[in-house]
């Protein structure tokens, strides 16, 4: 095979490509996301997508930069399940900034060091304006209603000192942007817009001790427009709270998608709910309301299945010595397994892999319920709750491996009848508290189910990360505004040192880079505003720059902005009038920004693409240089 | 086998360097190599034409391994550079740049081939003998009493690959770790022949580089299979290591055919044999059961239920360090009973968590020069480059044991050598030319070409269109061993 090499003489081609790819993410930013259809012209198939990573999943990417973008987005999605839109947008916005730098003749190494400095400034801002979620466990989730906004922000074990520090901070911020270094390094309130609002003085002068965050409040702020999905998450957390309070274990959540039911029917139920065929449902019917013994199989349930790494020998011939034995291997295996199962009195088998149709039928006849495609984490949860031990082969089962105390329950209300095959929802639960729960997602529009599921997981992970970080950021563009302010301040300092001392061109360049980086963030804020459908791009930009000028570093901008962004937010009209608090995740945002910059740096430093496996003819067509 | 394509008649081409196509390809390769060279070098995105995984790199070993050409000459150069890298780990780009530049200069000069070869060989000898002299001005003796020199050396290697995207602080951290790992692999107070230990590298994606660390002993990835009980306070644990697969299949059948009568269940028979092995291991009080390949889940289940820590799929790369660490003899078959001398020993076991990875930390029972380096980086492509660079650094540091000198980096050595050759060889041109069998003008032309090749390699460190000034202050250390340069010219 021939390989070939292409050298781009003009470097910014990669940056332009990155910026163009990032444009895809524009509509998936902010609380008001737009659906997109992706259509395959050749097959006529189409997909309905709502998030940036689903878009990339459905596109055919051949260029190296696109592939790199896709890998980065996937990495973000894998760990955080959210934030890929922000990542991609900023990668694009900052690559435009880098392009501008290149056009102005700033060297690549200076762009990189300038942007790294800019990122450090931003990280500093993120650290300083993060709001602690400590004290969460002190209050029962129900004691604060979701509308008790504006009061619940104060969190501290020593409310009075913290208050004074915060109000000090308030005075400090009008002049200097960052004077609140906390020597202990512990995350506490560094910034809260409530101390800056006119009516907030009452709050700080008359402190309400132990007024704490409640989880619904945080969740509401993290919903980012997916109110319904977040309500499900909150319900799930409430169910979960009895088990452990300060964290939200996403591994014990299952989603079950039921098409054909209206979206209002979505709900959270304890236990693990699966959809079963009629035959299996009839077995479940027999088994309902009695304690069951469960076998857990880690792998497929079939006679041909072998564990990973087992290689079937090629050169083995079976010699039949006697004719007319009749029974085939599968039959023998099945008889053996069923006998073993009956002997161990197993009524339920949970299989992480697949179970063959024949096995399911065979077991059904013996009133053993087989459920396959169970997630590994769920299998583990069952193992923990029932004291069962997952095994690889059914033949391996012994008395010690069998778990006890499982119940099945038929949920007639959830059965999806609209499918070709009717299905029955069955809840499998352990007697004790396994912490497992199922989120039922429903929609009459089948194509929307995927997006609903994605939204649910995004919300779940946002809350999970907020509780894990024990901190959130002021959302709705407030954090970005602060970053813009600090970046610009630093840029101005760089300009002035360039003028006054012999700092020279390096400082000037640094100033330019920081300034352009800030512009990228402004672009982000204004795009989010435009996506709400209330303002035009021009107006959004004007508003942002007005806010920046008027308040110049005053944190009040945060409040005004969130008001602006949220004006057209969602269906619940009582929320918007009160100016709901919006939060972002600390780690997710920081990591998304860092990934965006890393991606940009790689592309910025690249001058050539080496394509392997190109044949001579196509190479000549596409103007490639062959080696 | 039938031939699918009719074999075409052989085609003979002479003087390949006169062919413009070949020359263009060589020039392209030179551009590709020189643009990668140095700490500010440009990166290349390597991928296939159907949109596979993208590798971002400026490392010669990755880049050259990816390209292949229809021109045998290009392939020849490529292979010799790759050979060089496999032996010295470092200076692949330097070798490629110098080689391609010398070819180009030689062609431009219009000198006859054999004269050119003779001259280049002569000037190279001048350089090499100068570098080996005690009073050579462009090398420094490494001082092993302080780590400062070593860290500076490591740092210059690590900072030469921009695709790692390291900040100053991160570069320093990794340099220190590289030196620490290097020092841990040096055995202490061992009489007789000293053999160096090994550094095992484990990559953890998605974490800050500053979380990277070096540990003495060996860390093994046990993510997902974790079930270590609180280990008993024994001073040492007995361990057993298998190199044979314990998957329960019929191994190494080769071309032959096995006939099995239908009543016999071979899988069950082999499993019985495996369980017998397991039973013996439990009886012999084995606490750690490791297999290079797959272990049958039933055997794993049996061993775990008896409190044995089971690690499967160790992989071939970890076998040697584990053998060195524990003194175990790997068992290559399951058809004999276990010999007592096969057992190895581990002093201590503990669990360490690195991001998503759970690692089992094994400490040696006796003296051992094995250490493990955990490398963290934010994404895969930067991490793989960082891993390469760290391995390269380790190799470079090891080479200093044989020859404790480092050359000035940043192009200084090359410009210095060029200046030296120019100065040294202008005296006695007539005699030298006579010895080499060429005219004086040819000699001077050849010298000029050789020196400008060296200088152009130094100049290619600058990629942003800036001026490169020749200045002999010692900025960084860059290792170029004498024999490295030798190979460059011949390649």
TrEMBL record, chain B:
<dbReference type="GO" id="GO:0006457">
    <property type="term" value="P:protein folding"/>
</dbReference>
<dbReference type="GO" id="GO:0005524">
    <property type="term" value="F:ATP binding"/>
</dbReference>
<dbReference type="Pfam" id="PF00118">
    <property type="entry name" value="Cpn60_TCP1"/>
</dbReference>
<dbReference type="GO" id="GO:0060271">
    <property type="term" value="P:cilium assembly"/>
</dbReference>
<dbReference type="GO" id="GO:0032502">
    <property type="term" value="P:developmental process"/>
</dbReference>
<dbReference type="InterPro" id="IPR027413">
    <property type="entry name" value="GROEL-like_equatorial_sf"/>
</dbReference>
<dbReference type="InterPro" id="IPR027410">
    <property type="entry name" value="TCP-1-like_intermed_sf"/>
</dbReference>
<dbReference type="InterPro" id="IPR027409">
    <property type="entry name" value="GroEL-like_apical_dom_sf"/>
</dbReference>
<dbReference type="InterPro" id="IPR028790">
    <property type="entry name" value="MKKS"/>
</dbReference>
<dbReference type="GO" id="GO:0005634">
    <property type="term" value="C:nucleus"/>
</dbReference>
<dbReference type="InterPro" id="IPR002423">
    <property type="entry name" value="Cpn60/GroEL/TCP-1"/>
</dbReference>
<protein>
    <recommendedName>
        <fullName>McKusick-Kaufman syndrome</fullName>
    </recommendedName>
</protein>
<dbReference type="GO" id="GO:0051082">
    <property type="term" value="F:unfolded protein binding"/>
</dbReference>
<dbReference type="GO" id="GO:1902636">
    <property type="term" value="C:kinociliary basal body"/>
</dbReference>
<dbReference type="GO" id="GO:0005737">
    <property type="term" value="C:cytoplasm"/>
</dbReference>
<dbReference type="GO" id="GO:0051131">
    <property type="term" value="P:chaperone-mediated protein complex assembly"/>
</dbReference>
């Amino acid at each position: 095979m021939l390989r070939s090499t292409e050298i781009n003489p003009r470097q910014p081609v990669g940056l332009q490509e990155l910026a163009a790819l990032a444009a895809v993410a524009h509509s998936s930013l902010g609380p008001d996301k737009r659906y997109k259809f992706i259509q395959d012209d050749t097959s006529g198939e189409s997909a309905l997508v709502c998030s940036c990573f689903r878009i990339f999943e459905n596109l055919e990417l051949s260029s190296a930069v696109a592939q790199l973008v896709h890998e980065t987005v996937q990495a973000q999605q894998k760990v955080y399940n959210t934030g890929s839109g922000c990542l991609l947008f900023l990668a694009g916005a900052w690559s435009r900034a880098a392009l501008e730098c290149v056009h102005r003749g700033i060297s690549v190494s200076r762009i990189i060091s300038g942007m790294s400095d800019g990122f450090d400034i931003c990280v500093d801002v993120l650290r300083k304006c993060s709001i602690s979620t400590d004290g969460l466990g002190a209050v029962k989730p129900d004691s604060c209603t979701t509308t008790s906004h504006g009061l619940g922000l104060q969190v501290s074990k020593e409310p009075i000192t913290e208050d004074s520090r915060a109000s000090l901070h308030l005075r400090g911020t009008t002049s200097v942007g960052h004077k609140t270094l906390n020597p202990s390094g512990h995350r506490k309130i560094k910034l809260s817009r409530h101390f800056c609002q006119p009516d907030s003085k009452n709050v700080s002068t008359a402190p309400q001790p132990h007024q704490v965050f409640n989880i619904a409040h945080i969740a509401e702020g993290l919903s980012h427009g997916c109110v319904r999905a977040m309500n499900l998450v909150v319900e799930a957390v409430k169910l979960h709270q009895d088990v452990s309070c300060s964290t939200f274990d996403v591994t014990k959540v299952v989603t079950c998608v039921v098409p054909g039911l209206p979206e209002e029917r979505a709900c959270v139920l304890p236990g693990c709910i699966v959809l079963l065929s009629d035959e299996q449902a009839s077995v479940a019917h027999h088994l309902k309301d009695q304690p069951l013994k469960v076998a857990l199989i880690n792998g497929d349930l079939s006679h041909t299945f072998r564990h990973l790494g087992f290689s079937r020998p090629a050169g083995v011939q079976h010699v039949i010595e006697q004719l007319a034995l009749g029974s085939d291997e599968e039959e023998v295996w099945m008889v053996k397994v069923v006998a073993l199962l009956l002997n161990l009195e197993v009524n339920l088998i949970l299989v992480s892999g697949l179970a063959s149709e024949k096995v399911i039928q065979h077991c059904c006849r013996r009133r053993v319920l087989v459920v396959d495609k169970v997630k590994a984490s769920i299998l583990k949860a069952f193992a923990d709750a029932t004291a069962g031990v997952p095994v690889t082969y059914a033949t391996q089962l012994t008395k010690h491996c069998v778990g006890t105390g499982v119940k099945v329950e038929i949920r007639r209300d959830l059965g999806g009848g609209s499918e070709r095959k009717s299905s029955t929802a069955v809840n499998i639960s352990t007697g004790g508290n396994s912490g497992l729960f199922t989120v039922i997602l429903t929609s009459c529009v089948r194509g929307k189910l995927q997006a609903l599921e994605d939204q649910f997981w995004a919300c779940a992970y946002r809350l999970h990360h907020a509780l894990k970080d024990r901190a959130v950021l002021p959302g709705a563009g407030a954090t970005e505004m602060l970053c813009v302010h600090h970046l610009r301040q630093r840029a101005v300092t760089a300009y002035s040192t360039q003028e006054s001392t012999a700092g020279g061109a390096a400082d000037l360049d640094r100033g330019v880079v920081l300034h352009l980086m800030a512009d990228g963030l402004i672009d982000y804020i204004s795009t989010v505003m435009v996506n709400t459908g209330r303002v035009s791009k021009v107006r959004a930009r004007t508003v942002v720059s007005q806010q920046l000028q008027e308040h110049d570093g005053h944190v009040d901008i945060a409040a005004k902005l969130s008001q602006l962004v949220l004006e057209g937010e969602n269906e619940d009209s009582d929320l918007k009038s009160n100016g709901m608090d919006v939060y972002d995740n600390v780690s997710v945002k920081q990591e998304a920004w860092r990934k965006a910059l890393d991606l940009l740096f790689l592309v910025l430093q690249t001058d050539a693409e080496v394509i392997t496996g190109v044949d001579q003819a196509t190479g000549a067509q596409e103007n490639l240089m062959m080696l | 086998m039938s031939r699918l394509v009719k074999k075409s008649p052989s085609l003979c081409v002479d003087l390949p360097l006169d062919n413009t196509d070949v020359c263009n390809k060589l020039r392209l390769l030179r551009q590709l190599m020189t643009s990668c060279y140095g700490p500010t070098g440009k990166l290349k995105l390597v991928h296939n034409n159907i949109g596979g995984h993208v590798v971002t790199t400026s490392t010669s070993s990755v880049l050259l391994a990816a390209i292949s050409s229809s021109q045998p000459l290009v392939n020849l150069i490529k292979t010799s550079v790759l050979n060089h890298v496999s032996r010295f780990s470092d200076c692949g780009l330097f070798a490629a740049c110098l080689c391609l530049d010398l070819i180009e200069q030689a062609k431009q000069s219009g000198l006859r081939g054999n004269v050119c070869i003779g001259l280049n060989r002569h000037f190279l000898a001048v350089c090499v003998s100068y570098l080996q002299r005690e009073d050579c001005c462009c090398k420094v003796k490494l001082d092993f009493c302080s780590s400062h020199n070593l860290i500076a050396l490591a740092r210059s290697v690590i900072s030469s690959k921009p695709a790692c995207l390291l900040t100053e602080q991160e570069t320093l951290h990794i340099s220190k770790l590289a030196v620490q790992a290097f020092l841990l692999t040096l055995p202490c107070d061992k009489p007789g022949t000293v053999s160096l230990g090994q550094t095992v590298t484990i990559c953890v994606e998605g974490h800050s580089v500053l979380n990277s660390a070096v540990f003495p002993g060996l860390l093994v990835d046990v993510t997902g299979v974790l079930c270590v009980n609180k280990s008993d306070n024994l001073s040492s644990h007995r361990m057993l290591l298998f190199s044979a697969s314990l998957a329960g299949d019929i191994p190494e059948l080769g071309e032959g055919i096995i006939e099995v009568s239908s009543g016999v269940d071979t899988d069950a028979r082999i499993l019985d044999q495996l369980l017998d092995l397991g039973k013996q291991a439990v009886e012999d009080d084995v606490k750690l059961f490791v297999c290079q390949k797959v272990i049958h889940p039933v055997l794993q289940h049996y061993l775990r239920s008896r409190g044995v820590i089971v690690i499967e799929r160790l992989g071939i790369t970890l076998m040697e360090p584990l053998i060195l660490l524990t003194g175990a003899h790997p068992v290559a078959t399951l058809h004999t009973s276990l010999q007592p001398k096969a057992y190895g020993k581990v002093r201590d076991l503990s669990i360490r968590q690195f991001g998503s990875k759970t690692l089992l930390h094994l400490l040696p029972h006796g003296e051992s020069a094995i250490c493990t380096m955990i490398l963290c980086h934010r994404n895969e492509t930067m991490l793989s480059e960082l891993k390469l660079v760290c391995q390269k650094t380790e190799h470079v540091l090891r080479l200093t044991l044989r020859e404790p000198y480092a050359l000035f980096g940043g192009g200084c050595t090359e410009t210095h050598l060029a200046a030296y050759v120019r100065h040294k060889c202008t005296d006695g041109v007539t005699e030298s030319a006579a010895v080499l069998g060429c005219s004086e003008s040819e000699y001077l032309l050849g010298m000029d070409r050789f020196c400008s090749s060296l200088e152009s390699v130094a100049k290619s460190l600058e990629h942003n269109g800036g001026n490169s000034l020749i200045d002999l202050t010692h900025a960084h250390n860059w290792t170029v061993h004498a024999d490295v340069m030798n190979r460059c010219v011949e390649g």
